[in-house]
Amino acid sequence: MRAIQIDEYGDESVVRFRDVAIPTPADDEVLVRLSVAGINFMDIHTRLGKYRNSRTYRVATPTTLGMEGGGVIEAVGAAVTGLKVGQRVVYCLSWGSYADYAAVPARRVVPVPDDLSLSQATAALFHGLTAHYLAHDVGQLRAGTSCLVHAASGGIGQILVQMAVAAGAEVYATSSTPAKRQIALDRGAKAAFGYEGFADRLGELVGGVDVVFDPVGQPTFRESLRALRKRGLMVAFGSVGGHVNDLDPIELGEAGSLFLTRPRLADHLESADILRRRAHDVFSLVLSGELKIGMAGEFAFDDVLEAHRRLESRAMVGKPLLRVREAED
Which of 51, 53, 77, 273 fits 59 for a cystine, CB–CB 3.0-4.6 Å? Predict the structure, then answer.
């Protein structure tokens, strides 16, 4: 089978397109014949070695890239129950989806509703699960609360804006261009700003928000603190713009006794039941039309590095997918 792999960490030069053996699933795994894979910043971070020492997402070389995919079950491990050969499924947080086949832990696998395509389900799963736990578990958004969503035109950002609005929160957003800010407004944000001076703009409007969702990191971090009300919550769930390496906790006190958390999705998917409950919520919203998934397009298997370049340059709006094969079923 085809696979896109790395043997060492580094830039694009470490990526290898190979023919390798189809994996054999372990007792607690299923073998998925992949049709589509998600393209994510985590794939770029995997290649660069950002997870080499992670306890949550440890990824050692050599490895096949890609941590989210969708396809059909080809084989089921001896200890697996509730899943069967021929079933359409999606998964995330299991590396190896840049390939024709992947052996995936059964606890990471979610059956796909009949009315949802594999492309829709794959685009919705990882980003939808992320937005779901951020909005409901971490931010605890509800009527009467307010939040700021950075990078609101991105894959997670668009979903998070919609889930926050659905929860009854007042939502504000940032994006880099007027066109991207219009996407945030179309998804339900009350107002959208550029990154320069966003805390002052927000302060003029409402005096600050209860929660800031920040996947950017160093370029926006301290201004995000200024955008919060007293005892507000800073949710730093990514660092695509660079890491914050110089925080003195006293800054949180001086800024209004703020709370800071750096959550990860894996810690909010403790079991297959929790994963599938969250996925059911996400898929139901998509099928009802209440949740729109912005698609940045699909890329051919051989064009994955071009997709990575466009993702790194912030040229994409929404969720990009890697087309492994044409047929979905």
Answer: 51
